[in-house]
Design goal:
Elements (H helix, E strand, L loop, with lengths): L3 E2 L26 E3 L8 E7 L7 H10 L5 E7 L15 H14 L5 E2 L1 E4 L3 E4 L3 H11 L7 E5 L5 E6 L7 E15 L9 E17 L2 E6 L2 H4 L6 E8 L5 E8 L6
Parallel strand pairs: 3-4
Antiparallel strand pairs: 1-5, 2-8, 3-6, 6-7, 8-9, 9-12, 10-11, 10-13, 13-14
Length: about 260
């Protein structure tokens, strides 16, 4: 399938923010879930997709396969710029669109498109090209991951980021909260009449800190969030703001309301 490029930029892109889904953590009885328990410093695969794009379902199926691998943090980030052609993606977010645009600038791309996969913040490929996706993941295995990430129930819950020297200007710490799977009956647009399945659908994405070297503990209120948790969360540390992934970890959450 041919990837779909974003239409020309328009003024007044909607700046709505999805209602934040509270994080419900299931913390290990020992008090810490380390990166090694959820994949040894996994590779991050981000799929930028849309239910309004007819080229995206094949990439969605590839992402679903990748989501089963413990050595990957595979995330489905739905953009909102295809909503105007007939189907409003219920998981589309301007925050995801902004992340994709920022990647385009960092990676030297002149446009954004769907389906796009960004691997470890350094490689962009067409998300429906399985061979290119597999090659990019294999190449990413050679990228060093100097940052370790752990989850602890200390003082109600914390994310612990540790390592030696940080890059100049520090590194951004991102939290993504996601659902395991969503099934949607699409009634309009390019995929009208289809039942679409999306895996690891990001429902909340935010920058939660800056790592400047050494040990950083970021409070996470596990107890307060448990009643409305999603399937899982991932913490990603990137050089600068949208640069090379320096470390990542994922953790199962309590399943809660959608």
């Amino acid at each position: 399938m041919v990837p779909r490029t974003q239409p020309p930029a328009r003024r007044g892109w909607p700046r709505r923010i999805l209602a934040a889904a509270a994080v419900g953590m299931l913390v290990a009885a020992a008090g810490v879930a380390s990166a090694a328990e959820t994949g040894d410093r996994p590779i991050v695969v981000e799929l930028f997709t849309s239910q309004g794009c007819s080229s995206c379902p094949p990439a969605d199926r590839i992402l679903a396969d990748l989501a089963e691998r413990p050595d990957l943090v595979a995330l489905s980030l739905h953009v909102d710029y295809w909503d105007y052609i007939g189907w409003k993606d219920p998981f589309g977010s301007p925050l995801n669109t902004e992340r994709q645009r920022r990647y385009a600038g960092v990676l030297g791309l002149h446009y954004v498109f769907t389906p796009q996969m960004v691997i470890d913040g350094v490689t962009s490929v067409v998300g429906s090209n399985r061979a290119a996706v597999d090659d990019a993941i294999e190449a990413a295995k050679n990228h060093p991951k100097p940052v370790q990430i752990a989850f602890t129930d200390k003082d109600g819950g914390r994310v612990v980021v540790s390592g030696s020297a940080a890059p100049p200007g520090g590194a951004s710490v991102w939290l993504a909260v996601y659902d395991e799977r969503q099934e949607t009956a699409v009634k309009r647009g390019e995929n009208a009449g289809r039942e679409l399945s999306n895996a690891n659908v990001v429902r909340r994405l935010e920058r939660i800190g800056t790592w400047t070297g050494g040990r950083l503990e970021i409070p996470m209120d596990f107890a307060a969030a448990a009643a409305r948790g999603r399937y899982a969360c991932a913490v990603i540390v990137q050089a600068g703001e949208y640069g090379t992934v320096l470390g990542a970890a994922k953790m199962r959450l309590a399943k809660g309301a959608s």
